Each structure stands twice: as structure tokens, then as C-alpha cells.
Recover the amino acids of this structure.
């Protein structure tokens, strides 16, 4: 498999975690978003939507959207599972993942921040306030959801799931923009538990071949 | 089942379509987002994140996040299926759904538009330009993805799926803000095919009990 991705992309990081948790080897193909490499013909030939991550399977299919890719990996390589077996547990884990992937991250990705600055002439400080607002308010919702679930070292159950694959990159991202992480005990507890595992360590941006420090 | 939702919420509309496609009866519980009813204690008692839609199952569990709810309905009431049976097809359908639910809709929901106006002092016209930019550019990506898939009256295959449950509300939403829908033949073809079906007709905002016209 080939993973077209960018070291600092949260959505790419989610898929790298899933691949590491499942012990699946992959070719790392760097696509430098800040340099606009995703808009070059080479990458357009790979994926229609010009978004990273994109996973090329050994059969030559190209998959997009990080949560869809992770579910595909989970269905084709079921061990260890990244979703619970029961429908209610699966719904809980997917909802946690989507709380991050649909409510927080989309507001803060690179093309949105660029639009704020270039098209809307938003100042640096207002852009950073926007960023921190959505991460903090989103993580507060996330914490509220976790607080209603049974105690667990991770987001759900006794092993990392799709929800943790989404949470960890979001925390990295927020920390880079100095988001206040106080008062989120379940959330930060899950983050810290994950970061003790080799899969999360290996997948992190600082261990990527295209890492710029 | 009880569906806490709002007639104009795209994410609520997605779940209403899925419930209608599966022929599942439900109590319609209106939560008026513009009046802030989602922030009232009544609704906070139901759901931790104060987001609609929220589905209360007959067993009393409360589920959040529209795509997670739809997958739960698909797993607990498999007919008609809203996802293909093969992992690759499932990945395709989920990616199409997520292209809308993660790349387009989050930038245009009510709380984001409110933040732009109230906190960032963005003018009405710039807000509408923002709105149309993300819908149009997102639907162009969606069209590119559809163009790479085999011909189909719907988004994928010969019956509506999770992807159509997400597409149709996004088109309604875009039309309300006068987004140009020209040059999107597969996308608009799928929309029109869906709107010929009673399930999509019944679920639309104008047929909701809290519709304000």
C-alpha cells in the first residue's frame, strides 16, 4: 500500500496511526501541502479531490477520506479491531471520531486558514483566536461525551479505536497553536494513554520522513 | 425512537432520509436552533454535546453525529442497505459522505456563520461569499470523485446510500444560498434521482412539523 500524505496533516496522521496499530507496512509518499504539491498534475492523477490522505491499495484502488480509509483497513485487516463489535459501541466510537472530524478539524485545516487570511483579510491574531475557539469548544463537547461513557483508559473500551486515531492528531494540532487543554481529564487521559503506545509514537509528525521539525 | 432535530439542519435531514428509506417510524422532537433551544437544560439532559440530530433509541440510548446514527440504523435494520456489501464499495460511499460532512457542511453551519458575523464582524456579503465558496468548491471535488466511479443514477450503485443521504441536504442548503450548481452533472443527476423517491420527499424540510416555510 502507498499512503499519500503530509507529516503535519491531522487527517494523514489518523491513517498512519491505524496502519501502525494494525502493523501494516506502507510506502510513505509525501505531498507538501504548504508548497501546493496536492494541486500538481502528479497528485491529481492519483486522486480526484486533491486531498490528503489518499491510500493506494495493492490492487490499485485509491481511497480518500481518513475515516473511510480507517474503516476499510478495519474491514480488510480486522485485527486488532478499531471498532467495537456491538452496534451501540460502534455508534459511540464513530460519533466521537466524527465530533473531531466534522466539528473541529474542518474549521482549522490549511485551506480554511488560508481563505481567512487571503480572502477575508483576517489578522493573524483573529485567525489564531478562531483556531483556538473551535478546538477548545469542540474538545469541551468531546469531554462531555466521554464523561457520559463508562470509565476507560482510552476513548472507549480497553484498547485504542477509531476515536483515538482522530483524537491524538487533534491534540497535537491544538498544542501547536497553544490551545488550553486544562479541565479535560478524560480527553487528555486518553491522549496520554495512546502516546505510551509504540504505534502512536511511530506515526507522529516528528517521525515522518518529510518532517521539517 | 425519538429524533431530536431541526427542520433546516442538514445533519438532521440526513438522518430523516435514512429513517424514511428504512421505513422506521419515529417521534419528531423539534429543537429550534435559531432560538437556541439546543442550549436549554431540557436538551442538555438528552445529549452531552448539545448538537442535533440526536437519536434516542427504544432502549434509551442517545446517539449523536448523523453519519454514526445512519450506520447504526443500517447495522440494526439492514434492509434496505445504505452501504454496499464489499469493503471497497463501502469505502467509496463513506468517502463521498465524508466529503460533504467533513469538507463542506462544517464550514457553513449555523454556529460558524454566527461566529463570522458576531466575533469576526464579517459583513453579510462576505459571509455569503464564504458560504458559496465552500459549497461550490466542495461540490466540484464531489463531482470529480463521482466522475471516476462507474455510471449510476445515484451516487453509487443502483439504490440510494449514505452518500445520497448526505448529498441531498447539502444541495438543499446550497440552493437556499443561491450556489451555482451548473457543470455538476453526476452530482445533480443523483440529487434529482433521489428527489423522485418518496423517502427523500417526506424527509425534506418543508414537510417537517417545525417547518417555518
Amino acid at each position: 500500500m502507498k499512503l499519500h500524505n503530509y507529516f503535519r496533516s491531522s487527517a494523514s496522521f489518523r491513517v498512519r496511526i491505524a496502519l501502525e496499530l494494525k502493523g501494516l507496512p506502507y510506502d510513505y509518499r509525501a505531498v507538501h501541502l504548504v508548497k501546493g504539491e496536492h494541486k500538481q498534475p502528479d497528485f491529481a492523477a492519483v486522486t480526484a479531490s486533491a486531498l490528503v490522505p489518499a491510500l493506494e491499495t495493492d490492487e490499485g484502488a485509491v481511497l480518500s477520506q481518513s475515516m473511510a480509509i480507517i474503516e476499510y483497513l478495519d474491514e480488510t485487516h480486522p485485527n486488532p479491531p478499531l471498532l467495537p463489535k456491538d452496534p451501540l459501541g460502534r455508534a459511540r466510537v464513530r460519533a466521537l471520531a466524527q465530533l473531531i472530524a466534522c466539528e473541529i478539524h474542518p474549521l482549522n485545516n490549511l485551506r480554511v486558514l488560508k481563505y481567512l487570511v487571503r480572502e477575508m483579510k483576517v489578522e493573524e491574531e483573529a485567525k489564531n483566536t478562531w483556531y483556538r475557539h473551535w478546538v477548545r469548544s469542540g474538545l469541551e463537547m468531546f469531554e462531555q461525551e466521554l464523561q457520559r461513557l463508562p470509565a476507560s483508559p482510552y476513548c472507549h473500551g480497553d484498547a485504542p479505536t477509531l476515536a483515538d486515531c482522530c483524537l491524538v492528531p487533534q491534540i497535537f494540532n491544538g498544542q501547536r497553536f497553544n490551545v488550553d487543554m486544562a479541565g479535560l481529564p478524560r480527553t487528555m487521559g486518553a491522549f496520554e494513554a495512546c502516546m505510551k503506545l509504540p504505534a502512536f509514537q511511530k506515526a507522529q509528525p516528528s517521525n515522518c520522513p518529510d518532517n521539517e521539525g
User: Anything to note?
Assistant: The beta strands of chain B are 2-5, 27-30, 54-56, 62-64. Chain B has two domains: 2-80+202-207, 87-200. The radius of gyration of chain B is 17 Å. The CA atoms of residues 16 and 203 of chain B lie 5 Å apart.
